[in-house]
Amino acid sequence: MADSASGGKLAIVVGGGPAPGINGVISSVTIEAVNQGLEVVGVRDGFKNLVAGDLTKVRHLTIPDVAPYYNRGGSMLGTSRTNPAKKDEDMAKVLATFDKLGVKYLVTIGGDDTAFSGSQVYKRAGGKIKVAHVPKTIDNDLPLPPGIPTFGFETARHIGVGLARNLYEDARTTTRWYLIVSMGRAAGHLALGIGKASAATVTIIAEEFAGKTVALDHICDIIVGSIVKRLAVGKGYGLAVLAEGLIESIGEKGLIDALGDELDRYGNVERDPHGHLRLGEIEFGRMIRYRINERLEKLGLKVTMVDKDLGYELRCADPIPFDAEYTRNLGYGAVKFLMSRESDKYGAIMSYEGGSLKPLKFEDMIDPATSRMRPRLVDVKSELFECAVRYMTRLEADDFDAPEELAKLAAVVKLTPAQFKDRFEYLVK
To answer: Do residue 338 and residue 278 come from a single domain?
Structure first.
C-alpha cells in the first residue's frame, strides 16, 4: 500500500466486552501514529461519551502514556456496549463530536457492533474520516481468514485451560465431577479449545447438533453416558465443558417443554418486550447439574457434581506472548492502512494472512441484513474436531455393538444390556 501524506488527529474507541490485548492495540496504534506525525486521542468508555458529546472524556495520548501498558490486561480507555448505529441521531452526535475534535482517522477496537458502528462512521462521514477496525473477542467467532484467531482468544484459552486443569485435578483428588460452562454464545471455539487442551472428559458445543433439534435431556444424557463409561473402568470423577451457546440452541420452547414451571428455579427468569425469555439470565450450569443428578438418581447412581461458569475471569487477563505480539501487529497494521491510499477507497477490518496485512472491506464482512458479521462456527466435519471427539469419553456406537462392553456399562446402572441399549443408544444414532 502506497503511503499518502500524514498529519491530523487519530481517535481510538473501544467497544464491547473486554478481551486480553486491548491495551496492546491502543499502545501500538498510538506509537505508530505518533511516529507518523499524527496527534492521538483516546475516547473513554467507547461510543457512550461520543453520543453524549462529552469532550471531557477524551484524552490526549502520547508514547510514554501507552508504552507501559502494551502487555497489560483490561483497557486503559475502558469500554462500553453503546451502539450509535442503532439511531440516526446518535450517529449524527458521534460525527459532530468527531468534527469538534478535528478527527480525520478512527481506529475502533471491538466485535460485531463496534465494527458496524465504525463502518457507519466511515459511510456517514463521506470520506472525511478514514476508519480501521481491529476485531476482538475471546469467542473467536468473527469470520477472519482460516487459521487466523481474533485477538484475546489464545490468552483466554490459555488461562481457561489452566483453570480447567486445576478443576480436573480437584475432581480426581475428591472423586467428583466438575461442569464448566464456557463463554461463547455464537460459537463453541473457546469451549472446545479449553476442553481439548485440558484433556477434559467430554466437551459439548452447539455446532455438533447443526440441523437438529437440541433437547436439554439429550445434552444431559451425553454427560450421564460419560459418567457411566468412566465408572465402568473404576473412575468416579471427570470434567465436562459446555459452550454457553447450547442454551440458545435449546431455545425457549425446549426449556419450557423440559422444565415447565420449574424453570423459575434457575435464576431470575425475565422476558424481553416481545415476551421472549432472556436466556442469558438463566443459570445454565446449575440447570444441567440438577437435571443430571435427577437422571443419575433414577439410575441408582450418586455423583457429586459442581458447576462453574467460565468467562469473566479470562477477559481482562494479561495477554500471553502470542496476543502481545499479535496486537502489536494489528495496531501497526491499522495505522499503516489509514496512511495508505487504500483507506481513501474503503473502511476495513484489520487481519493478517500469510504474514502480510490484509484489510477486509467492511462491505465484504458485514451482512447488511443483520448489521453483523456472519459468525465463524466450529467446523464439526474437520479432522480437528474429529480428533477432539476421539479423545473424549462418550458413549460410542462400538459400545453397543460389543456384547462384553455393553454388559459392563449396563452393570454400572443395574440394567440389562437390552435395557441399557434402549435407554442410551439414541445418543450414537
So the answer is: no
- The distance of Cα 241 from the centroid of its chain, to the nearest Å, equals 14
Interior CA angle at 200 toward 199 and 202, to 5°? 125
Among candidate residues 123, 121, 152, 144, the one with its CA nearest the CA of residue 10: 121
DSSP assignment of 65-108 equals HHGGGTT-SS-TT--B---GGG-HHHHHHHHHHHHHHTEEEEEE
Percent share of the chain, pLDDT over 70: 96
Within 13 A of 199's CA, how many CA atoms are on the CB side?
4
Q: Which three cell numbers stand for residue 96?
A: 459532530
- What is the rounded CA–CA span in Å between residue 406 and residue 66? 62
* Confidence (pLDDT) at 271: 66
Domain match, 306 and 326 both: no
Average pLDDT over residues 366-380: 90
Say whether 199 sits in a helix, a strand or coil.
Answer: coil
Residues 6 or more apart from 9 whose CB is under 8 A from it? 38, 39, 40, 41, 101, 102, 103, 104, 105
Count other Cβ atoms within 10 Å, centred on residue 5: 7
And the C-alpha cell for 328? 502489536
Provide the percentage of residues in the chain whose pLDDT is more than 90: 83
pLDDT in tens, 171-223: 999 999 999 999 998 899 999 999 999 999 999 999 999 878 889 999 999 99
Contact 159, 314 (CB under 8 A): yes
Q: Domain of 355: which CATH number?
A: 3.40.50.450
DSSP structure string for 201-264: SEEE-GGGGTTSPPPHHHHHHHHHHHHHHHHTTT---EEEEEETHHHHHHHHHHHHHHHGGGGG
Q: What's the DSSP call for residue 425?
A: G
Task: Give the residue-averaged pLDDT of 127-154.
Answer: 94
Q: Tell me the residue range of the domain where 290 lies.
A: 157-314
Amino acid identity, position 411:
A
Mean pLDDT of 315-326: 97
Q: CB-based burial of residue 251 (10 Å sphere; 0-12 exposed, 13-18 middle, 19+ buried)?
A: middle
- Catalytic amino acids? 139
Residue 238: count other Cβ atoms within 10 Å of its Cβ.
24
Tell me if 367 is assigned to some domain: yes
Q: Are 145 and 161 found together in one domain? A: no
In this prediction, residue 3 carries a pLDDT of: 44
Question: What is d(CA 262, CA 48) in angstroms, rounded to the nearest whole number?
Answer: 39
